[in-house]
Specification:
With 236 residues, the chain is of the alpha/beta class. It contains nine helices and six strands, in the order E-H-H-H-H-E-H-E-H-H-E-H-E-E-H. A six-stranded parallel beta sheet has the order 3-2-1-4-5-6.
C-alpha cells in the first residue's frame, strides 16, 4: 500500500511533462533569437554546468531571479561563441524578456498543479526529490507550495544528484516509510524512474518532452502518464 509520494520538481510540477530546455527554446523562438536549436543546446549545457560548479544561485533567489541568471549565462555564451551577433543592451533586454516568459510558464503550470497537490496531500505524505541549485525551498515558498510537502531532498543541499539512487533513498528515508510504500513520480525515465525502481519504489513516469528521447527499459514504470491530472484516478 502506497503511503508516500516522492515527486521530482522541475519538468514535473512546474511545467508538467516538459524538460526546461524545451521551454527555454520555445522562449528563444518567441523572441526571434537568430540561432539554431543546436546552438541553443550548447549554451544551455554550458549554463547548467556553470551553475552546478559556481555559487551563482543564492539560497534566497526566487525562480524569476534564477531564470534571469541562467538566461544571462546562456545569451552571453551564445555571443562569445559567435552564434549571436547583437548589441549588449539588446542582449540584456531580450534575456530579461526570455526569463519573464519562462517564469510565466511556471506560474501557469503550477496553477493547475496546486489543485492536484491539495488533493494528494490529504491521502499521502509528499516529499520532493530534485536536482536543484540550493534555493528550491525559496522557490517553492514563493509559489505557495511548501505546505503540501513534508520534506525537500535537494541535490545541492544533500550533495548527491540524480540519476544516483542515493538521492531517491534519501527521499524514502525522509518519508518514514519503506521503499515499497513509496511511489516516485517524475518526467525523466533515466533520472527518476530507473533509480527509484532499483530501490523497490513504485513509479509513475510523466512522459513528455525530454532533453533526449527516452523509452522504457527493462525497469518498467508501474504507470505511464502524459499529464499530471492523470495521477488522481491512479492514486485516489
Amino acid at each position: 500500500m502506497i503511503k508516500s509520494l516522492l515527486f521530482d520538481y522541475g519538468g514535473t510540477l512546474d511545467v508538467p511533462a516538459r524538460h526546461w530546455a524545451k521551454v527555454l527554446w520555445e522562449a528563444y523562438q518567441a523572441y526571434d533569437i537568430p540561432i539554431t536549436e543546436q546552438q541553443f543546446r550548447e549554451a544551455y549545457v554550458f549554463a547548467e554546468r556553470h551553475l552546478a560548479t559556481h555559487p551563482v544561485i543564492e539560497p534566497l533567489d526566487n525562480f524569476n531571479i534564477l531564470l534571469h541568471k541562467k538566461v544571462e549565462l546562456e545569451t552571453e555564451e551564445l555571443v562569445r561563441l559567435g552564434h549571436w551577433r547583437v548589441k549588449e543592451t539588446k542582449r540584456a533586454s531580450l534575456s530579461e524578456s526570455i526569463a519573464a516568459y519562462c517564469n510565466d510558464k511556471a506560474i501557469a503550470g503550477l496553477d493547475s498543479t496546486r489543485d492536484i497537490l491539495e488533493t494528494l496531500s490529504k491521502h499521502y505524505r509528499l516529499i520532493i526529490v530534485s536536482n536543484f541549485y540550493g534555493n528550491l525551498r525559496t522557490v517553492m515558498a514563493d509559489y505557495n507550495l511548501l505546505s503540501y510537502f513534508e520534506h525537500i531532498v535537494e541535490s545541492a543541499v544533500v550533495g548527491v544528484r540524480k540519476p544516483s539512487p542515493e538521492i531517491w533513498q534519501l527521499g524514502v528515508e525522509a518519508s518514514g516509510y519503506s521503499a515499497s510504500e513509496c511511489c516516485a513520480i517524475g518526467d525523466s525515465y533515466s533520472k527518476d524512474i530507473t533509480p527509484a525502481t532499483s530501490l523497490g519504489c513504485s513509479t509513475i513516469w510523466l512522459k513528455g518532452e525530454t532533453w533526449k528521447p527516452e523509452e522504457q527499459t527493462e525497469n518498467v514504470a508501474t504507470h505511464t502518464i502524459s499529464q499530471l491530472q492523470e495521477l488522481l484516478p491512479i492514486l485516489t
